[in-house]
Amino acid sequence: MKTPSQPRAIYYIVAIQIWEYFSFYGMRALLILYLTHQLGFDDNHAISLFSAYASLVYVTPILGGWLADRLLGNRTAVIAGALLMTLGHVVLGIDTNSTFSLYLALAIIICGYGLFKSNISCLLGELYDENDHRRDGGFSLLYAAGNIGSIAAPIACGLAAQWYGWHVGFALAGGGMFIGLLIFLSGHRHFQSTRSMDKKALTSVKFALPVWSWLVVMLCLAPVFFTLLLENDWSGYLLAIVCLIAAQIIAPHDDQIPRTSPCSLANCIVDVCRDIVLGTGTTGRQYHQLVYRSLCESSGIQY
């Protein structure tokens, strides 16, 4: 039986997906060892930073998807995300043991991942009509591509770090992302038919600045914000707020989760912000643990 041909654009999406996974999992395989062996972090500090980083890269795609719908469009968001991830790995690849450069690099990667992750799948979905039977095959190719990159990354980056040094391993991860970006850009003519952004959502809001100005502002401010979060161990506060808001959104669709009143939710968020400002009370990680425990108990899940 003849396999239906896929749109040409999918092969460029698959290519950048392979290298994005290579970049992400290559760096992640080295991070804990780099923190403990090279920078001298104790185990608790290293695990805490790694956990905060791993959590934030899966929170930011929510914002990245919103920005793509309202301002950037999926393809522009993917390109911006790939550029940021490349830049973040380049900063990690610089031969310096500065903790500030570490936090800055992780913050840049977090921002890039947020723009990239939620929009690469959406960009693939735009290649097909609603009832196109090739859609399932396209997404299967995308997931297979990710698996290829994630399997090869720890081996290649790990060997590079072992033979030539930590920063070479990080630079290799960034180089992979840059290669994927170049391949993706070379296929720009195949993406002419994709939707750039949500026109209805865009026209319903009047922006004082042009779209490119918002992109520049976000690229400048977002890494600074996440650098402060990581350097001051405030990420737990942000994750606690995200958990509270997520529970509020999910509750109406699940009878097993008791819905919190908006007033109670607002009070919880105010308490978290108060402790950030005053520097007193429960730490960010403890807030995250308390919120997670509460959600588990309300859902009948053993904590």
Describe the structure.
This protein is mainly alpha-helical and 303 residues long. The protein folds into two domains: 9-231, MFS general substrate transporter like domains (Growth Hormone, Chain: A, Up-down Bundle), CATH 1.20.1250; 235-298. 77% of the residues lie in helices and 0% in strands. The protein contains eleven helices and no strands. The chain has helices at 9-38, 43-72, 74-93, 99-125, 135-164, 166-186, 199-203, 211-231, 235-250, 262-278, 284-298. Helix 2 crosses helix 9 (235-250) and helix 9 (235-250) packs antiparallel against helix 10. The chain is globular, with a radius of gyration of 21 Å. It starts with 8 loop residues before the first helix and ends in a 5-residue tail after the last helix. Keywords: Cell membrane, Membrane, Peptide transport, Protein transport, Transmembrane, Transmembrane helix, Transport.
Keywords:
11 helices; Growth Hormone, Chain: A; 303 residues; globular
Summary, kept brief:
Helix content is 77%, strand content 0%.
CATH superfamily of the largest domain: MFS general substrate transporter like domains
Distance between the termini: 50 Å
> Count of DSSP E strands?
0
Integer-rounded radius of gyration:
21 Å
> What fraction of residues sit in β-strands?
under 5%
CATH class of the largest domain: Mainly Alpha
Number of domains: 2
In DSSP terms (H or I, runs of 4 or more residues), the helix count works out at 11
Largest sheet: none
Structural class: mainly alpha
Residue runs with pLDDT of under 50 for 5 or more positions: 276-284
- Backbone shape: globular
Mean pLDDT: 75
Architecture (CATH level 2) name of the largest domain = Up-down Bundle
What is the subunit arrangement here? single chain
H-E order: HHHHHHHHHHH
Report the helical percentage: over 70%
CATH topology of the largest domain: Growth Hormone, Chain: A
Transmembrane segments: 12-35, 47-68, 75-94, 100-116, 137-161, 167-186, 207-228, 234-251
Organism: Escherichia coli
GO molecular function, one term: peptide transmembrane transporter activity
Keywords: Cell membrane, Membrane, Peptide transport, Protein transport, Transmembrane, Transmembrane helix, Transport
